[in-house]
Design goal:
The chain has 163 residues and is an all-alpha fold. The chain has two domains: 2-57, no CATH class; 76-158, no CATH class. It has ten helices and no strands. The protein has helices spanning 2-20, 30-34, 41-54, 57-63, 79-97, 101-109, 117-126, 128-131, 138-151, 153-158. The radius of gyration is 20 Å and the shape is elongated.
Length: 163
C-alpha cells in the first residue's frame, strides 16, 4: 500500500511540474515540432514521449534543428565529424540505397536546401566506392564528400557548409 501511495505522489508531482513547464518541458526534437502551439499536460507528455521514442533529440541538438540550439551541445565546426563518426555504418547503408534518414540528416549538416536532397543522394550513391573504401575514417570520408560536392554544380551552389 505504501508503494502505491508513493507512486501516486510521484505521478502527481511530475504532472504539476510538466503542467507548469508550458510546452518547454518536452525539450526539443520531433515531439516539440509535432505538438508545437499546443498547451497543457497531455501535449507536453506526448511531445516528451515522442522525443524519447524517436531518438532524434540528440541529432536535433547537434544540428540545431527541431527547435534545438546547436551551440548548446557541440561547436558547429565539429558537428559533421561527430555525426559521421557516430553514424558511419548507417550512412554507408543509406548511400548504397540512395536514400534514408541518416543520409538526409547528413545533407542537412552539409547545409543543403530541401530541394537538393535528390542530387545529394544520387551523388553519394554514384560515388559510393570512392567515398566509402573499407575502413574509411570519418575525417577522410568528410573530406572526400566535400570534395565531390564542391565539384557538383548544383550541390556546390545549394549546400552552404562545404568548407
Amino acid at each position: 500500500m505504501k508503494k502505491i501511495l508513493g507512486l501516486a505522489i510521484m505521478i502527481a508531482l511530475s504532472s504539476v511540474t510538466l503542467a507548469l513547464a508550458e510546452n518547454n518541458g518536452s525539450g526539443c526534437g520531433l515531439g516539440k515540432k509535432l505538438f508545437e502551439g499546443q498547451k497543457g499536460l497531455i501535449p507536453n507528455i506526448l511531445a516528451a514521449t515522442t522525443n524519447g521514442i524517436s531518438g532524434n533529440q540528440t541529432f536535433g541538438m547537434t544540428s540545431g534543428t527541431s527547435g534545438c540550439d546547436a551551440d548548446a551541445v557541440i561547436l558547429n565546426d565539429k558537428e559533421q565529424e561527430v555525426f559521421v563518426a557516430a553514424n558511419l555504418d548507417n550512412l554507408s547503408q543509406d548511400m548504397a540505397m540512395g536514400g534514408g534518414q541518416y543520409l538526409q540528416s547528413m545533407a542537412v549538416l552539409m547545409g543543403c536546401g530541401e530541394g537538393s536532397f535528390s542530387d545529394f543522394a544520387a551523388l553519394t550513391q554514384d560515388k559510393y566506392e570512392a567515398l566509402m573504401p573499407s575502413d574509411v575514417a570519418p575525417v577522410a570520408f568528410l573530406s572526400g564528400l566535400k570534395h565531390e560536392m564542391a565539384a557538383h554544380p548544383a550541390l556546390a551552389s545549394s549546400c552552404s557548409r562545404l568548407s
